[in-house]
Amino acid sequence: MEENNEFLQNVSQWANDVLVWIGFGTLAGLLAKAIMPGKDPGGAVATLAMGIGGTVIGCGVLTFFSPQGTRVTPISVAGFAVATAGSFVILFFYKLLGGYYFREGDGPIVRNRPRRKAALRRPAAVVYEDEV
Predict the structure, then answer these.
(1) Domain count within the chain
(2) Residue 104 domain flag
(3) pLDDT of 104-126, one tens digit each?
(4) H/E element holding 103?
(5) Sign, CA torsion 84/87/91/93
(6) Does residue 109 contact residue 103 with C-beta atoms inside 8 Å?
(7) For the chain, how big is the Rg over CA atoms in Å?
(8) Measured between alpha carbons, how far is 113 from 43 in angstroms, rounded to an integer?
(9) DSSP-based three-state secondary structure for 102
(10) How far apart are CA 84 and CA 78, in angstroms?
(11) Is 124 within a domain?
(12) What's the longest Cα–Cα distance across the chain?
């Protein structure tokens, strides 16, 4: 009976951890998209995946460089900061590899400025012909 109870507690703790990482990963992904300038590709699923991946990468790097035995979670301030930084890095590479910054063979992308309305422009030259 105790083994069954211990198993259920482990499953409950694991489910709680997964849901926390998904929730804070989503928030980190949204914050990274808000910080990154320009139009962002991807929808809700891409933001969710990018946020969770950034959380795993950021908290993993922080855990690697922390003293032995330190548990890093995205709930802490440092954990959320590195999760957002990890999501930001993933978004940058997503935009870089997706052709947002460069297109193969074309050189850098040049964005055209919007044109002014024709009514506001002066004609270049007006020619009047006299009637004969």
Answers:
(1) 1
(2) yes
(3) 665 555 556 666 665 566 656 66
(4) strand 102-103
(5) positive
(6) yes
(7) 26
(8) 27
(9) strand
(10) 10
(11) no
(12) 113
CA gap 88, 31 in Å, rounded: 8
Tokens 């507690």 belong to residue = 9
| Res 127: pLDDT | 67
Domain for residue 9, yes or no?
yes
How far is 25 from 19, CA to CA, in rounded Å?
Answer: 10
In the numeric block, the tokens 């962002």 are attached to 40
108, containing H or E segment: strand 107-108
Query: Cβ-count burial of 49 within 10 angstroms (0-12 exposed, 13-18 middle, 19+ buried)?
Result: middle
Q: Within 10 Å of residue 125's Cβ, how many Cβ atoms?
A: 5
In which domain, by residue range, is 36 found? 2-108
Token readout for 79 is: 């954990």
Pairing of strands 107-108, 102-103: antiparallel
Q: Is residue 75 part of a domain?
A: yes
Q: Is the pTM of this model over 0.70?
A: no
